[in-house]
Design goal:
Elements (H helix, E strand, L loop, with lengths): L8 H5 L4 H14 L7 H16 L5 H14 L5 H9 L1 H4 L5 H37 L4 H6 L4 H4 L5 E2 L2 E2 L4 H8 L5 H15 L9 H11 L4 H15 L6 H19 L4 H16 L11 H10 L6 H15 L3 H7 L1 H11 L5 H17 L2 H4 L3 H11 L5 H17 L1 H4 L3 H12 L4 H18 L1 H14 L74 H15 L6 H6 L1 H8 L7 H19 L1 H5 L6 H8 L4 H18 L1 H11 L4 H7 L1
Antiparallel strand pairs: 1-2
Helix pairs in contact: 2-4, 3-4, 4-7, 7-11, 11-13, 12-13, 12-14, 13-14, 13-15, 14-15, 14-16, 15-17, 16-19, 19-20, 20-23, 22-23, 23-25, 23-26, 25-26, 26-27, 26-28, 28-31, 31-34, 33-34, 34-35
Length: 666
């Protein structure tokens, strides 16, 4: 029989150290391991716990230890103990120490699990009134921070339908001064889980409207906890059809709003609640009633930038739609399109990027006749995103436009001139992946329209490829540095007025934890309009974009001869080494050369092979590790294509000094 004659765990539960309190809890678990206690032992144990919890003068650590112990013994405790400790809940939930309030929430969950609906009925007034009372800001926080009072009353400035970067005051406004609202919500969640199927009578319009208010709260942590409460409610077992029919459509509407929240942790919480909502519907055929509301947001979050949200949403999509995802999107195409368009205008650049990616997916997967009525709307919104301040959004919009042109050439024909100007703007963007995406998009345009646009594209390539030769040398970008050789590896500044280094002056600053700064979207307008953060294109960037484009064009049979005729211009551009970025340009050439060689075929490519041998072997000894790897890979792939013996013979014929490097590499 278990005994508590010498409760060694009691001093440990009173300790100020968390580790010792946890040791005391473990010892108490061992004491209770038998599952039953004698009456006298149980009373002494209950008395010890109540003394720890109810003391008004003891440190918070003692209360914390008592609450952990109380949650542990509730299943074995007497009804009198439960009533007494239940009476301590209102005071404990208002304790200033967060850990006390959280431990009280765990205790409430255990009381509801043991006492069921009766226990929750007694606690409900305290929990719901606590949530209502804390929905409004605690004015004492403003009293303690008077310098922020005026700023907190101001609304964030708006421009282009989105707030500017938040000030310190606005951040304070969203995160502080809500007292115990979040912990009351967490306690309610534990109550719902504890009651299980017995909670159904308490699922009323009043309760749900109160939870819905928290889902619209300005504090993101409150919204996150609100969706956790909603998840606990929708997965209550054995809910009646009447309850679901009465309330579940309102629940689905608010879940959709959470799936489109600006904060990733809120989206994640809403995603969990949505999965619980759909998987607990009985029978499963009832899911179809809520698909028009939930399906568009679920579909978009499969491409959301936050990895946790993205992967979880992909799993939910497979779980809920099984193998019928495309058919369901086609069935609800109108709702899906409208949601994608709304999300393409969201304040969060990551959401706009996901919307563009999803629009591109529609063109690839949805039957064309179903999507055709919406093409004009979708292309218009992609053109808006093409001018976005955020480069990932511009890149996604560019790829989506190229995809739409390939799938719907006739519907996109009226937009062709505007698209070309934007495609070529991206082809010279300062971000390498944006240039590569533009090349893919232009390749799709040429594939769709053929000879109608080929001349226009190749003319632009011929104009841009030689521009690398006019790229200014690095020394011209640093006029304050003496161009003379460095002494002991240290360069000397020119005496006189200091000229700021343009590379690090007045440049955009990026926030940690974000792929791009808090940038604005831009509305429709002249195709020449560009982002305020768009860096003017360097000559070498224009040439490098054309190398990517030639690699795309060389894979189209109708363009192969023209692409092959421009290889000498590519080789000539790769020979220029007078500027600091020539390593980047050469790396691109070396990566794309095998692609072009395979697409053009052995015979057409061998005519131009010797033009590239000097750049390839220069790359093998280059100071840049990336270029060395690209050169080695390029040489190996060309040997596989042409044959090692033939390749070695060409190298020997061109320059026998390269043979040593060739034999060492291949």
């Amino acid at each position: 029989m278990a005994t508590v004659e010498e409760p060694d765990w009691l001093p440990l539960l009173r300790s100020k150290k968390k580790l010792e309190r946890e040791k005391g809890l473990a010892q108490l678990k061992a004491v209770l391991g038998g599952g039953s206690l004698e009456e006298g032992e149980r009373r002494r144990l209950e008395t010890c716990v109540l003394d720890l919890v109810s003391s008004l003068t003891s440190p918070w650590e003692e209360k914390h230890g008592g609450l952990m112990a109380g949650a542990l013994i509730v299943p074995l405790a007497s009804e009198g103990f439960r009533e007494k400790i239940k009476g301590e809940v209102p005071l404990l939930m208002e304790n200033e120490e967060l850990r006390i309030r959280l431990a009280t929430g765990e205790l409430i969950g255990q009381l509801c699990q043991s006492g069921g609906a009766l226990a929750y009925h007694d606690l409900e007034p305290y929990l719901l009134s606590g949530i209502r009372d804390n929905l409004e800001r605690d004015s004492s926080v403003l009293t303690e921070n008077p310098e922020l009072t005026d700023e907190l009353g101001q609304s964030p400035s708006k421009e282009d339908e989105r707030p500017s970067s938040p000030s310190a005051a606005q951040i304070f406004h969203d995160t502080a001064g809500w007292r115990h609202l979040e912990t009351y919500m967490a306690a309610l969640q534990r109550s719902v889980v504890g009651c299980g199927s017995e909670f159904e009578p308490f699922i009323t319009s009043d309760l749900l409207h109160l939870i819905f208010d928290t889902l619209k709260h300005t504090n993101r942590f409150v919204r996150e906890t609100g969706f956790k409460v909603l998840a606990a409610i929708v997965k209550c077992p054995n809910l009646s059809p009447a309850t679901m029919e009465t309330h579940w459509h309102s629940v689905a509407k608010h879940l959709t709003e959470g799936l489109a929240d600006n904060w990733s942790q809120v989206r994640m919480s809403a995603s969990v609640a949505t999965r619980e909502f759909l998987t607990h519907l009985q029978p499963h055929e009832k899911r179809a009633d809520y698909f028009p509301t939930l399906l568009p947001a679920m579909c978009l979050n499969r491409y959301y930038v936050a990895e946790g949200v993205r992967l979880y949403s992909q799993e939910t999509w497979q779980l809920v739609t099984e193998t019928k995802g495309v058919q369901l999107v086609e069935q609800h195409i109108s709702e899906v399109v409208e949601f994608y368009i709304s999300q393409s205008r969201a304040a969060n650049h990551a959401v706009r990027e996901a919307a563009c990616t999803c629009i591109a997916e529609l063109g690839n997967k949805v039957p064309r006749d179903s999507l055709r009525p919406f093409i004009a709307k979708l292309v218009d919104v992609l053109l808006e995103c093409f001018r976005d301040d955020s480069w990932p959004v511009r890149d996604a919009a560019c790829l989506a436009c190229g995809n739409f042109v390939a799938c719907f050439p006739e519907e996109c024909r009226p937009y062709l001139d505007e698209l070309f100007s934007l495609f070529f703007l991206n082809l010279e963007d300062s971000i390498p992946s944006v240039r590569q995406g533009a090349a893919v998009a232009i390749g799709n345009v040429v594939k769709a329209y053929g000879s109608e646009v080929e001349e226009r594209v190749f003319t632009a390539v011929k104009e841009r490829l030689p521009l690398a030769a006019s790229q200014p040398a690095a020394a011209e970008a640093h006029p304050s540095i003496d161009p003379a050789p460095a002494v002991f590896g240290v360069v000397r500044k020119i005496q006189g007025p200091i000229v700021p280094d343009s590379t690090h002056t007045d440049q955009q600053m990026y926030s940690c934890g974000s792929l791009a700064p808090k940038m604005k979207r831009r509305g429709s307008g002249d195709g020449a309009e560009v982002s305020a953060f768009h860096k003017p294109a360097e000559p070498w960037e224009k040439s490098e974009g054309c190398v990517h484009l030639l690699a795309e064009l060389s894979q189209q049979r109708s363009c192969a001869d023209k692409a092959a005729s421009l290889l000498p211009m590519v080789a000539e551009a790769a020979r220029h080494k007078h500027y600091s970025q020539h390593h980047n340009f050469l790396e691109t050439v070396l990566k794309q050369l095998p692609v072009m060689a395979k697409a053009l075929g052995k015979r057409p490519f061998k005519r131009h092979l010797e033009l590239f041998l000097d750049p390839i072997f220069y790359g093998l000894t280059c100071e840049s590790a990336l270029v060395r790897v690209a050169s080695s890979d390029c040489l190996s792939q060309l040997c596989q294509l042409l044959g090692r013996v033939i390749m070695r013979g060409r190298v020997e014929q061109h320059d026998p000094q390269y043979l040593e490097s060739f034999d060492r590499t291949v």
